[in-house]
Design goal:
21% of the residues lie in helices and 35% in strands. The protein is an alpha+beta fold. The strands form nine sheets. The chain has a five-stranded antiparallel sheet with strand order 2-3-10-9-11. The protein is elongated, with a radius of gyration of 44 Å. The protein starts with a helix and ends with a helix. The relative contact order is 0.07.
């Protein structure tokens, strides 16, 4: 009984010893890379260990201080012109590769990564190799080849290529064919992406319904980086005007359409609080209450208009020039140059309580970038098109090929260039021409020489008067 138990213990110890030895082999990662002047093999260990490499005859030998195992498929696949299949030596600490061409060798170590470079030619100032050369054995009358001086350069294996030239040429042609195939696939992928974008736009356009001449579609909304994107899929080209007035975004199209805005109620209200389409028989007029800090950028993709609400200002593609022409016509005019302006749209602002004259423009991202104030009207800054806030009912806004013309039935109160350049006084005896806002000679009291004295006397009279007398002074 005791002898049987003793045999069982020895057998169990032997099994665990064998298993421990098998498990002692460290799994490491081996990868390879092909470079213009060398081929590289990298052994990645989880820790530092002893390392040496050498070339013996037509064989590359790599030895580590611990048993290891690895997958060498990347090496044999990438470097098939340099090395053949690997062979592990007894003990598990050494791996050998047969060489298929004459190479030099350099070794490096970067932390736990051990690098073996198989050089195509001897470098001018090579690094010292840690591997020591081994003598080639003599066969018959053949003398052993002289060893390379490792202090002056890497060791070189005198190996002639075992590959057939036709096979080498075939590999080169195959590599060139693969390169051309990759280029073709990249071009095809780019074309497919462009086609998908075009189909997406076309699908959006087809989502619009035209019934008895009335266009109807649903507003498309998408969250983008830093803001929100609104898309208006008109089935045909439409001119647009886009601008901010206070905390309301105005979007106006020259074509009448019923636009379903119900999706706005489903949003988080962090950018848009509410939306409304105003009544208009000849155009589409929409307003959106927007969180302060967001500014619009409008662009047209075919017939689909896109308005991005962002925190950063994006300059429009085209800036519409504003030209004053005080001598034109009966009372002068202001001209905003635009490519293809639509007919002006008159709209009532329910928030401010006044009227606007809005001119949509077909060209994408063409805008008035700076607000201008005149006596008769305000020219608002826009992200697309032209928007005007009239200060008189006699204002006229007309669209002409290439421009929007602003005038008045009683003449615009705009000064000529001479008056604008005068500043505060006379220049060369030239005085500003009518229209004038105030008759200064009629209101003048004394001369400029006695101005200060007259001012002091008037202030003294007011200070010496009684409170009841002061209240009786007309204001």
């Amino acid at each position: 009984m005791f002898r049987a138990l003793h045999i069982l213990v020895l057998w169990t110890f032997g099994v665990f010893a064998f298993s421990g030895a098998a498990l002692a082999q460290q799994e490491i990662k081996t990868r390879a890379g092909l470079h213009p002047d060398h081929a590289r093999i990298v052994f990645e260990w989880p820790r530092k260990t002893e390392f040496s490499a050498s070339i013996t005859g037509k064989e590359l030998r790599v030895v580590f201080g611990e048993p290891f195992t690895s997958d060498y498929s990347d090496v044999t696949r990438r470097l098939r012109g340099y090395v053949g299949p690997p062979k592990a030596a007894a003990g598990g600490k050494e791996i050998r590769f047969s060489l298929r061409r004459e190479v030099g060798m350099q070794t490096r170590q970067f932390g736990n990564r051990f690098v073996v470079d198989l050089m195509n030619s001897m470098p001018a100032s090579p690094e010292k190799s840690v591997a020591q050369p081994l003598p080639r054995p003599k066969t018959g009358n053949q003398e052993s080849a002289p060893q390379q001086n490792m202090k002056n350069g890497p060791q070189v294996a005198e190996v002639t290529s075992e590959r057939d030239p036709a096979e080498v040429q075939a590999d080169r042609e195959k590599a060139a064919a693969l390169k051309e195939e990759r280029k073709r696939k990249a071009a095809a992928a780019a074309a497919a992406k462009a086609l998908a974008a075009a189909r997406f736009i076309e699908d959006e356009k087809q989502s619009a319904v035209i019934k008895e001449g009335q266009i109807s579609f649903e507003l498309r909304v998408k969250e983008i980086a830093g803001g929100l994107r609104l898309r208006f899929p008109f089935p045909e080209d439409a001119s647009a005007a886009v601008f901010l007035r206070g905390d309301h975004l105005w979007v106006v199209f020259d074509k009448p359409a019923h636009i379903d805005l119900s999706i706005i109620s489903l949003l988080k209200r962090d950018v848009i609080q509410k939306a409304e389409q105003l009544d208009d028989q000849d155009a589409s007029v929409l307003t959106f209450q927007v969180t302060p800090g967001y500014v619009p950028y409008a662009v047209r993709r075919h017939s689909v208009w896109q308005v991005d609400l962002l925190k950063e200002v994006i300059a429009p593609y085209g800036i519409l020039p504003v030209i004053r022409e005080p001598e034109a016509g009966a009372g002068g005019l202001v001209r905003v140059k635009a490519g293809n302006p639509a007919q002006p749209v008159k709209a009532f602002d329910p928030v401010v309580g006044d009227s606007l004259v809005i001119t949509p423009v077909l060209e994408s991202a063409h805008a008035v970038v700076q607000q201008r104030k005149y006596v008769d009207f305000d020219l608002l800054a826009t992200a697309q098109g032209v928007a005007i806030s009239p200060n008189t009912e006699r204002l006229q806004v007309k669209s002409q090929p290439g421009s929007v013309v602003i005038s008045s039935l009683s003449g615009l109160l705009i000064s000529d260039d001479v008056a604008r350049n005068l500043g505060g006084g006379r220049t060369g005896g030239v005085m500003p021409q009518a229209p004038a806002y105030m008759d200064f000679e009629r209101w003048a009291r004394g001369s400029s020489a006695t101005y200060k004295e007259t001012q002091r006397q008037l202030l003294a009279n007011v200070a010496g008067s009684k409170l009841a007398e002061r209240r009786a002074i007309p204001r």
